[in-house]
Queue: 2 jobs
Job 1
Amino acid sequence: MRKLGRTLRRSCVGLIAAAAWLAIATSLPPHATAGERQPAVSKLRQIPVAWEESIGGQLYSDWPQVMLYRGPFAKHPLWAGDAAAINTETWRCVNCHGWDYRGSAGVGGDLGVVANVPGLRHLVGASRRTVADGINHKNHGFAANQLSADALSYLVNFLIEGQRAVVDLASKARQSGADAEAGGQRYAEVCRVCHGPSGTRLNLGSERFPETLPTLARTKPWKFLHGVRFGHAGVMPAFVMLDDAEFLNLLTYAARRLDKS
Ligand code: HEC
Ligand code: HEC
């Protein structure tokens, strides 16, 4: 999968992304009638913050890919998961702290649940200093040529604020009421170009454990929501402009109908 990601990135992904952005920008519903529309300026002010959280979310999911850091990697000193894991994988935040940000107490990352890892949800609203110190903890062993000062700052934004968006979405997803029909329309407009008509064009797992969009939506909703909310470095934009209902419509559509139509 990583290979496919890389190949895609190398080829015309810039173009596709630009086209997708255009599609999103032109297809988003007006959201509100003129009377209740927010003043443009306040909307603009929100965007940079959302973007910084998104880059933070991407770093959390795969910082070596965002930083174009190719190693060398020994196994991470705190790794207490699958002994056969590829070294690079043991350094991804998500593979220890989990797709639901609950560490050993939660659903785990791409390689399952890892022992002795704290959750990070209590850091929502914490001071930047506390969070940065947590990441810089010497046991983590992140060097400045791995995580730059900017990257650290984006990660802090993600942990003190960004992660909350996904936690909120996941708790709303447990309530019913999503509109699969509307999710299908949005899918056709902004996702199908890359993921294909039945969501199976891209492998979102590994070569050994392949995963399609519908299987991901059914079995790993946390990864689904994190991935769509924050994007995937270099290959998929962050969909920060969709509102909560639209995320949930997309999740429901992908889980229930996408590979059945
Ligand atoms: C190999 C597993 C592993 C990886 C990878 C990992 N962590 Fe951790 N993390 C831990 C463990 C274990 C602790 C507890 C450390 C301790 O107390 O000695 C921890 C602690 C933390 C803390 C402090 C938590 C608190 O309660 O204050 C933060 C913040 C954190 N990690 C963020 C990150 C981020 C961000 C990344 C990726 C850039 C990351 N971690 C990657 C295992 C990992
Ligand atoms: C510009 C192409 C593109 C568009 C548009 C796009 N994706 Fe993706 N998406 C990708 C690629 C490529 C990957 C796989 C990245 C990898 O694993 O290497 C991916 C990964 C994912 C993942 C897995 C999470 C992750 O971080 O890998 C989910 C979930 C996902 N996409 C859902 C969606 C949904 C829903 C939409 C529409 C709202 C969408 N994507 C739009 C290209 C795209």
Note: The first helix runs from residue 2 to 10.
Job 2
Amino acid sequence: MSHFRKAITFAILFTTTLALSVSSIAPARAGDPLYPDIVEQISHIQIQNEHKREMLRFSTIHINVGDGPLQIRGGGQVAQCTIDGVSYPQCTIATQEILDSSGNIVQTNPAGTALFHPQHNHWHQNAVVNFELRPGSLEGKAIATGQKVTFCMIDNDKTDLVQKHNKRTYFECNSELQGISVGWSDSYHQSTPGQELDITGAPEGVYYLTHYADPENHWLETNENNNFAWVKLLLSRKGANPKMTILDRSPCSGAACGSPSNP
Ligand SMILES: [Ca+2]
Ligand SMILES: [Ca+2]
């Protein structure tokens, strides 16, 4: 897994209701583009002491609740690239492929850069999600920003929300083709390197842990306004170790996002 710092400024997009994110009611015709819709879920929030640092760890799930798969192709012309000051020996242009109801590619869209990690034999997509911890309110200035911005996207878990496409399609990180099928999710457990924010010494109080999927808008989606997810937390320091209590969360979580087994 590759890590590098990235500061992204973006307008806060409040999560809209799920009813808005599941779009077209009319049956799609052959040739009509079927767009994905990625939403974020945050779970398994916990503070761990690691080498005298207080790390807020969390699991992250990207869920496709759209009309078509999120399909990303890379691996064509490979060359060195530098992103945010970090050099990568093998990079390729990533392209989103939009399919129709017959599975034909009917549209393509530039989707940033894919990076090859020889030690993992994985292609990773860049700028998939941005993590932050903001004090006081959603508009608070971030006191911690995640370093991980690359993911290998595959069909990890089938959600309960969208049943119309059950076929698992994307399951190999070493493929040049990655994606998330409709109704499937790609999850990253809190123990995965990069699934953390350093909150060492943060004062007691209310914080918002935020996730912003597709922060550079690489992917065309049916709903671009539901990619922002948050959890409202209370940090207390009564005992020997700090504790985070969940006070509230954005609408798309748990069963509402079709993943009741990952509340
Ligand atoms: Ca979306
Ligand atoms: Ca997008």
Note: The chain has one domain: 33-258.
